[in-house]
Amino acid sequence: MKKITKISKIFLVLTMIFSQLSSVVTVLADEITSKPLDASLAAVTDEELGYVEKYTLTYKSEKQDYDEEKEYTIELESSFEYLNGTIENGTDVVVTKTGSELNNEVNSSDLDPISTYYNGVYNLKITVKDNAAVIYEESIPYVVNTVKSGLVGTLNNGEVEPTNETLGIVSTGEYTVNEEKEYTQNLMIVPGNLSPDSNYKVTIGENEMLMTGEDIAQSTFDGSKINTTSSLGGLYNTNDIITIEELDNNDVVINTIDYTYDASINYDKNNDEALSELTGLSLNNGYLYEEAIGYNNSDSVTSIKEIVDSLVNTDIELSIYDENNTLLDLTNEEVLNSQLKNNYRVVFTRGTEVTYTVVVTGDNTSDNNFDSDDMKVTMNDYLEGNKVLSMDVVKGEDDEEGLLTFDDIMKLNTELNPATSGDVNINLGLVYGGLPKEIYVGDTFKLNVLVKSENASDYINGINALVTTGNNLKLTNVTYNSNLIGTFKDNNLVAAGTDLKNEEVLLTLEFTAIKEGKDSITLSGSIAKNENIEEFENLTTEVNVIRKISSNNNLSSLKASVGTFDIAFDKDVTVYTLTVPYDTESVILSGSLEDITSTVDGLIEYKLTDDKTTANITVVAEDGTIKVYTVYIIKEAKPENVATPVTYYYSSNNYLKSLEIDGYEITFNKETNEYKITVKSDVTSLDIKAIPEDSRARVEITGNEKFKKGNNTVTITVTAEDGSTREYKITANKESEKKEALTEIEGNSNTAEKVVIIILIILVVLGLLYLIFKKDEQEVATVEIKKEQKIDNKKTNKKN
């Protein structure tokens, strides 16, 4: 019976061992049968709103270990978690792929995004099955934070769409309208940062509504209104704010978003035409045009009172600013009686502001008159490239507004000097007058430019030209015939006036010869007869600049290496006295020539063997003329013997000459005061050798003991003889004591865990075996004891 019991126990133990081995096999099987995929998830987003249009999964076997002949089932389960934590499941996708496809190809699947207009997290679970056995699982999250959130708008329920719109917490919209009517701003919320099933309180103006996120996304809200009826054209700006408050289950606000929409509505209306008709002013494209007195037969400029009176029976507000942008008082009688001037700003307001800048044509001196003073200023502006709206009187298709041309100059000149009789530029041209026979370097000479005409009655009254020369000549001035007003700048010249006929001097060019050699003078450009402008044939003449032989024999300076001159140097003074100390042995005289073509002798070192020495400095000009400068060098009287006190100076040298640390290399520089080294953990001090640059200086070292872990500073103080000090510092970084490295168990963490599980299973089995057989031993021991007791009892009974 006992044998049967023991056999039963052994059988039980074996059953338990096989059961545990089954678990071990399962654990190892997981390691053996897992076939991972190299998978990635990408999204295609809308460029304008940022929402996800579709997801694309790409995948391939990571280890190319799939059985190529087999077919595997790939299950794709998708879900979307909104910002409030709500999860919405997508449609599952099941794909069948062969092992060959998984091993050798990059496979892809397009997936439904589930949610379109909301931010959140898209989750995709991938399960690979070999028949019913799962051989790989993976979850891939994709964070969606690109969906924009904000307001978009239209006017009158889509009647007018924005021409330009930006989307965000602060959104903007630009609109153009052209009808006189009321327009309502309609707004829709792009709900990127909301959740469809959350509850919200929506506030716009004084209106409050309770809505879900899904309701918000499908709703249109009315915002600001503008009415263009009887209004001026221009920009109208509106601002709307919609506040979204997220509520929890107890209707407590847990999050607030303020969406702003700034609209700019351009009412496209011809204000120029309407206001011109109302006021009688010449208004065009932001400018109010007047004509200066004397220009185009004008005899007045509009007064401010005339504009005020024209608006009496309207609801248009008027503001006028002067050229300094100061608002004028339109109730002041003096202001009302004054005239508009250049650069005044006239502002009309009805619904919006319309601003015009005043341009008084023909006035360039701010006096509202057109005369010769304006012409001279305008010609300077023309040559300097300045923009002057009031003098830009000829409008070309490609002309830049306000930029002056020669056509403007001649148009203005015709207004100032009305045309006389004569043919129109028939064989008109220019010729040069005569040149001096000899032109020397430094000379200034003049060259006349004359009118050339085959018709004695023909004339010109304007010129626009460029003077070019080589490097030997410089244009220094231009003068004009008294019939003309003109100016020049950087070799460009312009002039206009009244008639000049054949052989009359048009202008005179003045040059300075600056270098020797041949050169040429060329005049090119256009001549004009009133507003008829034609290019003239280039005028060129040759000039030969020669150089005169110089007679300059002057010094420009005179100096001595020691001593004092009796008077300051003057090129025309030829005698000087130089006083030097009694013990001077030599003097060097130096100086410079006024003319580099001259030569000099005598600017040398003079040995002073006597109390008086004479130095003669001879300058010879290029033409041979000579000038001699004489310098008398006089020694001071020798002083009587006087005891000279001895003064002792203490050295201030506190530099180190060298610095060495035994066992360590440093690059020493006496100007470098800080050094860093690293020392081992057993080092407590340094062996330092510091030698001063001056033997009279002393060196003291502190901090060079009992080093602790980390940075230790050793200070070397050098004290100079005069007491001044300099410190050199050595920072010794002491390493920490090294401890024995812990042994790391290398390998895959998952495999390690499984080994631990196996060991635990074996320990459990051994423990069970121990407990079972220990009980048997106890039973055997109990039987033996009982047998002994029976024998003892028998022996006791026999004795009795």
Q: How would you concisely characterize the structure shown here?
A:
This protein has 800 residues and is an alpha+beta fold. Helix content is 17%, strand content 44%.
List key phrases describing it.
about 800 residues, alpha+beta, Immunoglobulin-like, 7 domains, six-stranded mixed β-sheet
Architecture overview:
The protein is α+β, with helices and mostly antiparallel strands and 800 residues long. It folds into 7 domains: 1-33 and 751-800; 34-144, Immunoglobulin-like, CATH 2.60.40.2550; 149-267, Immunoglobulin-like, CATH 2.60.40; 271-370, no CATH class; 418-546, Immunoglobulin-like; 555-635, Immunoglobulin-like (Sandwich), CATH 2.60.40; 656-734, Immunoglobulin-like (Sandwich). 17% of the residues lie in helices and 44% in strands. It contains 9 helices and 46 strands. The strands form 11 sheets. A 6-stranded mixed β-sheet has the order 10-11-17-16-13-14. A hairpin with a 4-residue loop joins strand 3 (71-82) and strand 4 (87-89). Helix 1 packs antiparallel against helix 9 and helix 7 runs antiparallel to helix 8. The two termini are 37 Å apart.
CATH class of the largest domain: Mainly Beta
Largest sheet: 6 strands, mixed
Q: What is the strand tally?
A: 46
Categorize the overall geometry.
flat
Rg over alpha carbons: 54 Å
Q: Could you name the ranges where pLDDT drops below 50 across 5 or more consecutive residues?
A: 24-32, 739-749
Looking at the structure, the CATH topology of the largest domain is Immunoglobulin-like
State the end-to-end CA separation.
37 Å
CATH architectural label of the largest domain: Sandwich
Strand content: 35-45%
Q: Tell me roughly what share of residues is in helical segments.
A: 10-25%
- Helical stretch tally: 9
What number of structural domains do the residues give? 7
- Based on helices, strands and strand pairing, what is the structural class? alpha+beta
